[in-house]
Amino acid sequence: MTPSPGRRGDLFDPACPTRRLLDRIGTKWFSMAVKVLAEAEPDEVGFAELRRRIPGISQKMLSSTLQGMAADSLLTRRVEATNPPRVHYRLTELGLSLDAPLAAVRAWAEEHMAEIDEAGLKDQAAGSREATTAASD
Amino acid sequence: MTPSPGRRGDLFDPACPTRRLLDRIGTKWFSMAVKVLAEAEPDEVGFAELRRRIPGISQKMLSSTLQGMAADSLLTRRVEATNPPRVHYRLTELGLSLDAPLAAVRAWAEEHMAEIDEAGLKDQAAGSREATTAASD
DNA sequence: CTGTATCCGGTTCGATACTG
DNA sequence: CAGTATCGAACCGGATACAG
């Protein structure tokens, strides 16, 4: 259980929900899933369509991502018990509200995309200076 | 060559800078580093102090994180060629501007911390069959 | 003091195969 | 169609040892 209920969001505490949320966001397909689901609002989206809208994702990862989101009450699942069975996903209010700050990050990335890209290239050509000869990625 | 000069930020394209940025944000210590560095502005911060302010981080990860940020021009490095050598880090304008949207995510996490936490607990007690038996975390 | 290199473990992720 | 299970690969992250 959480060590201190009155504690404010301590990003540095691994046990803090804020930290867990950040970790969750960091998973590979999370932000893409949120974006697709948010754009689909207020409609529900099926598993297959979700997969179609997230190029490259596998069943496993889509399932995992969806489960993770549901575990944090970011997502609801509606099962249509027909044949063939169809399952519809939809963001909760909580999940939808998360899309706002996430969209801000996306917007930032789009806005400064060129600068980031340039930086990555310049990294190669840099002669010396104090330029970071980073080679981690 | 980058295939997307005029392309809009395509989050789904692994080669797109926006996607790379999201991946970088997702790394374990990134957001914490940005926060600490942003709070230190406009002062510079030394390696040791940075380490002190990010509990639990190892030299390697701090170095990696810093390198990654520098590779994207989010950070500048000033080496003081003395003995002992001291290195000062400081966010670039680009890096500092990233703190804003990141802070929005942090704020969201803090605001909804309780709901997330509750959801995580409820996951345990839930007797429902289709309840998310998430075991990813 | 400020890093880098190496080893190693844990987790994430992906392809495939299988069940309802 | 909608998912789960299993396996193996790749990567992230940590401890230690070492270099400038």
From TrEMBL, chains A, B:
Protein name (Swiss-Prot/TrEMBL): DNA-binding transcriptional regulator, HxlR family
Keyword Glycosyltransferase: no
InterPro entries to which the protein is assigned, alphabetical: HTH_HxlR (IPR002577), WH-like_DNA-bd_sf (IPR036388), WH_DNA-bd_sf (IPR036390)
Sorted UniProt keywords: DNA-binding, Transcription, Transcription regulation
Segment forming the signal sequence: none
Every HTH hxlR-type domain range: 16-117
Coiled coil region boundaries: none
PANTHER family according to UniProt: HTH-TYPE TRANSCRIPTIONAL REGULATOR YODB, TRANSCRIPTIONAL REGULATOR, MARR FAMILY
GO molecular function terms attached to this record: DNA binding
One Pfam assignment: HxlR
